[in-house]
Write a structure and sequence with these properties.
heterodimer; A: alpha+beta; three-stranded antiparallel β-sheet; 3 strands; 34% helix; globular; B: alpha+beta; Jelly Rolls; eight-stranded antiparallel β-sheet; five-stranded antiparallel β-sheet; 24% strand
């Protein structure tokens, strides 16, 4: 998922804590902020039924609709294991 | 009972000759299907089951989702989650479902390479649809179930568009950019399609859709093989057999002695003779159509 945060939201004093709480609540596996946090890439693995509820939670916090992008996962390696 | 897709019969309300003279690559056409033709197409497509179709689609399946909280998003889907995406209100797109009884018939009717015609299926939920865009393919859409409203340009915005484009997008291919810079969006007409309707939309024609109820449609699309492709591929194949044509460019400029090695004038004479020979031209086209990989 990725979302572009409005500058006013980013500048709010308690935004970072709220954003972190939201990421925890939606089960984010990783985040990749770019451009000083304005662009947020968030890695999630969810059932399709959770996509809109997660988007709604993001929208209600930042006022912007997130876009979901497919995650390209490499094929599992079938050779050596446990090294 | 119909046992093949007979495009001549499908086009009979306007006539195949008129279709090619007035509509092909130029103007949309809306045609009613006979009940038996719709029944044949439905039977050939088989059950409209998202999981089955996701497994069958050779070029994968996608879910498109946009709602009051989600910006337009595209998901790659598979047989295990296709129904879940249908349940959350996504548009489903199954790309290149093997239906040779339909695609080969259309390709043969058009005199096009069979590999260039593919079948794809769309499920559109109630309230779903597509934003204004044009495609790079010649599209024949058969409405299978439900009703859908199309807004379609009277004529292509870009004649013989080399690429697809979503209006307003900043993603524009280099081939399209100069054509788009000069293009104007033509007036549109509203077309309501019900099950048993065939809609032909030429490439480059702006269209957008909306569905008031869930609907399934089949799209037979001809990803164009252009005359330029035919000449490039056919001539390369034909001329590469000749050591003269495999020779390297020498003496086009440079030293006077090197200019003696300039073979271009005689090669152009050879090319003219080849192109003037109807049998060679026929062989050129035939070899292109018969290529195994399209």
């Amino acid at each position: 998922m990725w979302v572009v945060l409005p500058p006013a939201i980013l500048a709010a004093p308690d935004f970072e804590a709220q954003w972190r709480a939201l990421l925890k609540r939606i089960g984010a596996l990783a985040t990749y902020p770019k451009e000083e946090g304005r662009m947020q890439y968030v890695l999630i693995e969810v059932d399709p039924s959770q996509i809109t509820p997660i988007a709604e939670a993001v929208f209600r916090l930042v006022g912007v609709k997130p876009e979901f992008l497919p995650e390209i996962v490499p094929q599992p390696y079938y050779g050596w294991r446990g090294y | 009972m119909t046992d093949a897709l007979d495009m001549s019969r499908l086009l009979s309300p306007i006539g195949a000759e008129r279709f090619f003279a007035e509509h092909w690559q130029a103007r949309m056409a809306l045609l009613p299907l006979a009940a038996e033709d719709l029944a044949f197409i439905r039977e050939t497509v088989g059950p409209l089951d998202p999981a089955r179709l996701a497994g069958a689609a050779r070029e994968g399946a996608q879910a498109w989702l946009a709602n009051e909280f989600v910006a337009h998003s595209v998901f790659l889907i598979n047989p295990s989650n296709a129904v879940k995406f249908q349940d959350i209100g996504a548009t489903l797109y199954f790309v290149n479902v093997p239906l040779p009884a339909l695609t080969d018939s259309l390709a043969d009717f058009l005199g096009a390479p069979r590999q260039k015609v593919i079948a794809s299926l769309f499920f559109t939920p109630a309230g779903g649809g597509a934003v204004p865009h044009f495609d790079k393919n010649e599209n024949f859409t058969f409405q299978l179930t439900g009703a859908k409203r199309w807004q379609i340009g009277e004529i292509p915005m870009v004649a013989c568009a080399p690429d697809s484009y979503t209006l307003g997008s900043t993603t524009i291919t280099p081939a399209l950019a100069p054509l788009l810079a000069e293009a104007r969006r033509p007036p549109e007409r509203t077309v309501d399609v019900a099950p048993g309707t065939l809609l032909y939309v030429p490439r480059g024609t702006v269209h957008h859709t909306g569905a008031g109820e869930p609907s399934w449609s089949l799209n037979l699309s001809y990803s164009p093989a252009t005359w330029l492709d035919l000449l490039q591929v056919g001539l390369r194949q034909r001329l590469a057999a000749s050591p003269r044509w495999r020779g390297i460019v020498t003496g086009v400029a440079g030293d006077a002695a090197a200019r003696d090695a300039n073979r271009l004038p005689e090669l152009l004479a050879e090319l003219r003779a080849l192109l003037d020979d109807p049998r060679e031209a026929e062989a050129l086209a035939r070899s292109y159509l018969d290529r195994p990989n399209g």
